[in-house]
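Need tokens for this chain, all 280 residues.
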Amino acid sequence: MHEDDVEYTAHGMHVVHDGPRQAPPMVLIHGSGASGTSWSPLVPALAGHHHVIRVDLPGCGQSPPAASYDVPVQAGRVAALLDDAGLRGVSVVGHSSGGYVATALAEQRPDLVGSLALISTGPSIDAFLPQPVILRVMLAPPFGPFLWPRRSDAMIRKGLGATLARPVDIPDDVVADLRDLTYRAFRTVLRRNLAYLTERNVPERLAALDVPVLVVFGSADPRWDPSSAHRYDAVPNARLEMLPGIGHIPLWEAPEITGQLLLGFAAMGADASSVIPSKD
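Here are the structure tokens for all 280 residues:
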């Protein structure tokens, strides 16, 4: 049960707890190939108000590879973790494809999810933009499998930087975790995310749920068409926050406002929009 541990492995995932255990719970789910360390700039502010739980999804960060990287299977692992801790009504936050796992969790176990926040989560396949050259070279055959194990820290930082709209200090632990990520695991994760989106887009999935949703999108996101964020307007319980001049990783590019949005939304739930003025 790990009640007294702040860091451990459970259900094939490396788990880190921050903040008081008696505080309202908040789960943070990273994007493709990243890890729980990607949330580091936000954790101090969030943990001042919440029991923050960060996971490394299988194959990422300090978590071992898994037999399946299907999005619903990943969500099931998170559900099992929350069941172990006896948590309900959790504020669940996903960045990028972590938003798919968060959505799948709400689909499978609505009893666990009190509110849902999606940051830079592409709504559908056709919203995906042509990717920066360095990402295409690092990820796609024939160069990807050859270059991936030869990546330097500088190359990793350059690849991450291509997803940003402004210069930031990329956390060293993020680079270290990405250095250990295998090409096979990353490509498999990407394929399974694509399968989840192909089956049904995210706004349609969310529209079938009865959960408050916050969508945060950068107006200069180079990975997903920023205008596609308005597809979430079709979700009855959703509100959209567009962040001017921000790229794909608001956690690093605008940590203060991102943290404020998450805290306000988690505190007020469906009524958050009456407290935090929309930036849209």
